[in-house]
Each structure stands twice: as C-alpha cells, then as structure tokens.
Amino acid sequence: MKKVKIGLAYQILIGLILGIVVGAIFYGNDNIAAYLQPIGDIFLRAIKMIVVPIVIASIVVGVAGVGDLKRVGRLGFKTILYFEIVTTIAMVVGLLFANIFQPGVGIDRSKLTESSISQYEETAETQEEHGVVETFVEIIPTNIFQAFVEGDMLAIVFFSVLFGAGVAAIGERGKPVLDFFQGVGDTMFWITNQIMKLAPFGVFALIGITVSKFGLESLIPLGKLAIVTYGSMVFFVIVVFNIIARIAGIRLFSLLRLLKDEILLAFSTSSSETVLPRVMQKLEKFGCPKAITSFVVPTGYTFNLDGSTLYQALASVFIAQMFGVEITIGQQLMIVLVLIVTSKGIAAVPGASFVVLLATLNAVNLPVEGLAFIAGIDRILDMGRTAVNVVGNSLAAVVISKWEGKFNQEKQVA
Known about the structure:
- This protein is 74% helix and 0% strand.
- By secondary structure, it is mainly alpha-helical.
- The protein is globular and about 70 Å long.
- 48% of the residues are buried.
- It is found in: Cell membrane.
C-alpha cells in the first residue's frame, strides 16, 4: 500500500488549526503557555541559529562570483531605490484604506482592554532620534563578531559583500576560501531542511500560546481594524504587487505558489527569520542569481517591510479617528515622511513595528495612549504584516534580478 505524503504547507496548516483549537480550549489558562513555550522557542532558536551562517556564506559566494565591486554598488543603489518606492506606496495604501473605511470612527474606548506599552517607550524615544544618516553609518560594523552575535543584518551584509569582493580580487588564491564558503552554504541549507521538519510543531505551539493568552474574542471590539488591515494587505499583494510583477514580466502567482510553505510559516510564527534560508533557496530555483538573492532579501529585512509600513500608516490614522482627532492631508503626509525615517534600521528590535508606531505618534503629536488599546491584538495583525513582508522581499529579489538582466526566465515556475 502506497504511503500518503503530506506536504509541509499542509502540515503547517494542521499545526495552525490544532494550535487555535487548543488555545481556544485553554483560554485564560497560564499553564498551557508554560507547556507550549519551550516547543515554540526550540523551533525559533534553531532557525535563528542558522540564519547568520547562511547569509554570510551566500553573499560571499555570490559576490565573489560577480567579481566586480562596481556592479555590487550599482545593485545596492537599485535595491534601496526600489525599496523606498514600494514602501512609500505601501504607506499611501494604508492611509487610503484608513480614510475610506475609517476603522477608528465610533469606537467605544470603555469597551476596550488596555495593555501596557511601557516596554516599548524607551526604545521608541531612541528611535525618534535615530535618523537616516545614523542608519547608514551603523551599516559599517566596528566589531564584526559583535554584529554576528547581535544578528545585525545590515552590518553582516556589508562585511560579507566586502569579503566576497576581496576573495574575487585575489584570484586563484581565493579559491580555497570560496570553496569553504560554498561548503558552509550547502551544509547550512541541509540543516535548514532538517529543522523545517519541526515547523508544524513550532506553529502549533506559538499560535496556541497567542490564542490562549488573548482569546479569539479579543478581536471583536477591534474587529473593524483587523478587517480593514487584512483587507488593505490583500489589496496590496493582489493589486500593487501584481502590477509591479507585470511591469517586470513576472507571474506573481507562480511566485506565491512556490513560496506557499514559507508564507504560511511566516504568517503562523509572525517571524520573517524563520523562512529566510528557504526563501533564498527557492528564489534561486525560481531564476534569481545567488549574488542578488543573498543581497536583496537580507537587506530587505530592514529597508523593505511593506506589510509593516502599510499597517503603521493605517494604525496612525486609526488612533486619531478613535480619539476624535481631526487629521489633515498635510499631517498624513507628515506621517509618511516620519515613517520613512523611523521604520529603518530596527528590524531586529523586539516588537519593531509597535516601536516604530509609537515613535511616529510622538513625532506627529497623536495620542500614544491609543496603542495601549490595540496592543492586545497586535500579534494577530503582526501575522499578516510578516507574510506581506516576506512576499515583498521575495518579489524585490526577482524584480532586481530582472532589472540587472540576470533573471533566468526558463527556471520560472509555470
């Protein structure tokens, strides 16, 4: 009798559904989190363990293959330009949905549960003083080993690009170094495939903890915000990303089918890191060269968080509406300008999207108390944001590959 093999996406979906059921059954029971947390932590820690070695090995091999630092510099310019354009479009879409559907109008704040936001306030104050210039200065690490330990992705990317260029520059003497990093990359991808077998268990535990802590009923008072947020994200993927893909001559839905496992996993865990290695691997199979994939995707974790910036723009207007504060077009444009600055360089900060939102509200004089009301469902909204971020960075790698004339059209999945 032939054994039926269940694909990873279906395994993750089963874990997601079972986690929701268990979380709903044990809602309000703190003991269930104590049992599930270690399972979720093991999976997340295992993924984080392999991210840095994979990024370093992939970039060194990719850049050494390019062999020309000028071409790498041109690639970096095109990548940052693309990121800024698309994230700005994301903010505009967030503002449009907030103004059209007005999710904050008519909300009775007495029926909302307040959550503490004190853990984010100090970080937000630091972020308000953190400008674009500082972000670019901090790309250059003073201690590369410290950057490895802290998971500072931009610093790691910068060092790896220089190292790869150096390996290419010394020619034949660099071949043993290149072979070493090629071996490291292949080994780490094998480890990734083994760790991904734990994904359904990690998803089950993490979503179970979320539902048991907040309960499904936490969505009811802020249901309109959740619906508008997810509606705007679906619109952004189906319409905006599809237009970008068509302009570039790419079939968006082929890319989405290829990455369905990773999108579902990112959604379930609210973590882009969990899928970075597999996304890079699959994009190469889709037709993107290693040099571009290994540069664009990790850099996008700081500069191209489309789902997060869309939500931050929408949530800023939502909070103004909830408190009955009139907000002009000029003020909304100011929100976009502030977000362009505050949303860069803190992807590794816990609760990064929440921190950026807090800093933005402070900068444009909107009531920060509103965050205490939406903190309870932030994890639910974060799931959607993370999935859109993953799709956005994957599409970016393909678009930049096309722009550079390096995309292998024959590999594109039908």
